[in-house]
Amino acid sequence: MDDVSGNISKQWNKHHAIYMSNANLPREMLEKEFFVRFVTLSPHAAPMELMRAMKDSLCNAAQSGVVAWDCKDEEEVMLIPCGLFLAGDNPMQAEECSHAGLNCNYFCRTCNASEEGYNSIFKTTDDIQHQFEAAMKSGATTKVQSAVSSTGVRDSASASILESLIELGKKLRKRAPGLPATSESEITAALEKEFDELLRGTTLNDAMNPLFGMNGINIHLDTPTEILHTVLLGVVKYFWGQSVFILEKAKLLHIFQSRLESVDKDGLNAPSLNADYICHYKGGLIGKHFKSLAQVMPFLVYDLVPQTVLNGWSVIGELVALIWHTTIPDTEEYLVSLRYLSVERCHGLTDLL
């Protein structure tokens, strides 16, 4: 799922769209547009409303099966679909996990610093229930905001119900001139009645994130990190900005540009290293530029920047090469290399943070 623009022009017209692919297909096939299948799109429905419909459709298909014709074996087959993971950018995946994002104490949707980790569905649903309990009490706004910040849990699917209860609580507790204050027991009873009406005969669990408890999906673990924004438009982009600042301050940008112009591009699978463009529009580069720059920067700035910055570019180059593997022949060997890079090589870069 992602948000896209419904306009051909540059004016932003936000739509939420869901697409699916068959994970059993070879990677060469998954990359083709034909195998990315449109599911649904809406400019009005919230993302979790679309996800609820998608989940219901997938679960119904898994329960009844889908009869199809196998053109290779020339016989009827029954397909039983099952979710594997949900792709998207970090903000969308955070919403799918009922996670509050970066502005909370637990800013990672997958883990926290403890052994247990954030990835417990039961912990998340309990936290949502505690927020509704806090919404029934005096000072609900502050208490709910504190709960969101301290736990990292914000459920967009049930957020409208929660906000309605908080607003109603404020109105009931507001004392009118010349009238006695409403007792807390009466306010609680009114809020509970309103809560039942908002649920429309369902339970709170039914109103929560529909992806909780979905067969085959652990929503906290099955939202793989989206490396374009996390790495290229995150770490690499800001490291590039600092490097350009150093080069401009030392009046060495022209040397960097000449080296970039003459660097050998034969080893890059998709080079995007137009030196004039990169140095002229150094503040407006996109992912493909950063992907190419990350692989060649250590060879261009080895004597132009401090050693700590050069070490940083060396680690970034190794990281980009590892995480953009299209095939991994030996998973164990790959994980050892990734663990060594993240623990041993990055340990010496703490001075840059």
Characteristic key phrases:
globular; mainly alpha; 353 residues; 3-stranded antiparallel β-sheet; two-stranded antiparallel sheet
What does this entry look like structurally?
The chain is mainly alpha-helical. 50% of the residues lie in helices and 8% in strands. It has 14 helices and 5 strands. The protein has a 3-stranded antiparallel beta sheet with strand order 1-2-3, with helices on one face. Strand 4 and strand 5 form a beta hairpin. The protein is globular. The two termini are 33 Å apart. About 2% of the residues have low confidence.
Q: What is the total tally of β strands?
A: 5
Distance between the termini: 33 Å
Largest sheet: 3 strands, antiparallel
Strand order of the largest sheet: 1-2-3
Any low-confidence stretches, pLDDT <50, length ≥5?
113-119
Structural class: mainly alpha
What percent of residues are in strands? 5-15%
Q: What do the pLDDT scores average to?
A: 85
What's the tally of helices?
14
Structural topology:
Elements (H helix, E strand, L loop, with lengths): L1 E4 L8 E7 L6 H4 L6 E6 L4 H18 L1 E5 L4 E5 L10 H7 L24 H15 L4 H12 L7 H15 L10 H16 L4 H4 L19 H23 L3 H10 L12 H6 L6 H14 L6 H17 L7 H15 L8
Antiparallel strand pairs: 1-2, 2-3, 4-5
Summarize the structure.
Helix content is 50%, strand content 8%.
